[in-house]
Amino acid sequence: MAVYLSFNCLYLAFFALAGLFPLARAKKYVTGYKKMVVLFPTYHADEVIIESVRTAIVHDYKGEFEIVVIADGLMPQTNQILRQTGAEVIEVFFEKSTKGKALLHAMDNLKDRGFDIALVLDVDNIMGSDCLNAVNSAFQQGYKAIQLHRTAKNLNTSFAFLDACNEEVNNHIYRKGQAVLGLSPALIGSGMAFDYTYFHSLLKNVGDTVGEDKKMDFLIAGDRVKVAYLNDIFVYDEKVSNAHVFTTQRTRWIASQIEFLRTYTTKGIKELFKGNIEFFNKTVQTMLMPRMLLLGLLFVMALQSFFNPLGPEKGLWLTLFTSICVTLLISVPRRFYIDKRLYFAIWQIPRAMIGMVIALFSIGKVKKSNLATPHHNTSTIDNKT
What we know:
The chain is of the alpha/beta class. It has one domain (1-365): Spore Coat Polysaccharide Biosynthesis Protein SpsA, Chain A (Alpha-Beta Complex), CATH 3.90.550. It has helices at residues 2-18, 46-57, 76-85, 99-110, 131-140, 158-180, 196-203, 212-222, 243-273, 277-287, 291-304, 314-331, 334-337, 341-345, 349-360; strands spanning 36-43, 65-72, 88-91, 117-120, 126-127, 145-152, 192-195, 227-237. α9 packs antiparallel against α10 (277-287). The chain is globular. The two termini are 39 Å apart.
């Protein structure tokens, strides 16, 4: 246990330190404009999707783009309103719904429309200023896959603020830190753009998994395709506002992590010997314990070391616990430290830890349902990046 937890702390600390170094800003100079499709895969989220589409439809892009909603379980009147805004609606019906299947169905329907780039957004996402222009510029530089900086749209509750901090820690370690060292950032399921033809080919191999972004991570690494990270181009995302939604969301995430740990561990080691560092790195990430569980377990181990004469001495456990705390502190953006809501959010950490434990023992539910995260209408951006 000491060796495994030390490995977790070292990996996170290494990339957290790397993330402190600057990353080149997204280039805006272009010689032409590619045709884009912005895809909103939507599952039973009538009250949110209308405002998201209305915001997207007026986005300032100098080229040609279309908004397409992939409607799974939306009410007929919602579909009608969406069409009236100027968006295209593609209705899908599945016995078991997954984002990967919905996206593939839409891509099949749109393949002859001449799109060069597909941008995927979640139902609650709002694109930041100049988003599509920056994406267009990056593709003109030769990239086939891009991850934008997804950040919190709402900080309206202490739990949402904690989740916003968690998102930024992920951005710092798994995206910026990786990109600074020349590795591909981890995809996050939204705020990601692809060459249309390449994305279509990826989706054909995603299957029924609920972790379609992680599956694509491995497929892209297997193809030795580099993913770009645009750290200064934002997509605003709704953060979970309570512990129940947090637990549901993390149940799905843990289930997909375990799925890919089982599937790719052996292959990841083989790819390392073939020189594919990217693929091996993705495999290593599936071996890491979720941070909330890691933080809680290290606290318990440090506490028990004062009373238990067996195992490593308290010096090791205290060092590891301090290490993960420092790693998290340097990964949270500075602007959060001047917001008093951060100090109320810290008190939500025990609830988040309990939620992670519940999620760990609930992963069997994912086989029966996709455990979609419920959304609320929070169109106002409350996060000043």
